[in-house]
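Example 3.2
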Amino acid sequence: MGVATSYSLPQTRTFRHITTQFDTRYGVLWCIMDPKPRSSFSLELLEELRALEIGLEELAGVTRPEDLPLRYFVLASRTPGVFNYGGDLELFIRCATSGDATMLRRYARACIDVLHSYSENFHIPITTISLVQGDALGGGFEAALGGDVIVAEKSARFGFPEVLFNLFPGMGAYNFLTRRIGLARTEGMILTGKTYGADEMRAEGVVDIVAEDGKGENALYSYLEKHSRKQNAFDAVYQVRRKIHPVRHEEMLKISELWVETALRIGPREIRLMERLLKAQEKAPARSL
């Protein structure tokens, strides 16, 4: 990754599923997801992301905005061709088969805690950016939607395949996509299970910037140059968006409870489909930094 001047933050050295780098020139904290054994949101990945978020949240009210070296947070992925496939299908299969509602609730809560904090910029005056250089599906799409800005490479694909499993995306899809494209379009996207290209998502108003493949980081840094010249205006607009279309943590939890109930009703056909998709996900290779 071509980061100008960077170092690993001391508190993240023990992380196994994420890597962090801080670009001192632009004030960018890169959070690069590197989940194992597959590019999905395991509980372990979620716990590490939440630990990083808590460290950032602790800066709120302690550090004056003008003294904060951090100006941007970028969520990206190390896996080539994949931003994130979304939910932990292995966990879903196990819970659906055994009727384990408690574990499903724990998983949903972990997802919501991470995504809500990201969507609120960790309660500090920064801009969050999702850099999507591959497939962002299901929960991966939800995660990308949490950022103020979405930068996507042309070959990136977006979609909610949950309907194929007789499910729905229950950890933020409605909340975050609705405030970008409205309820009717959001429901249409969720219920078709279709995948969309980056250009289609740009035309819909979901993606903010589309870059050529391999040029996503360049496009991101070009945005930073532009943003830094009009930072007050950009930041104010993003704050207005959050105020006009607030996403409340308690609301997300209520939706996730419906998701748990729905997940416990899926049948053998859907579970077999999950098993096939799980095997396909495990074949994705890792990208070196």
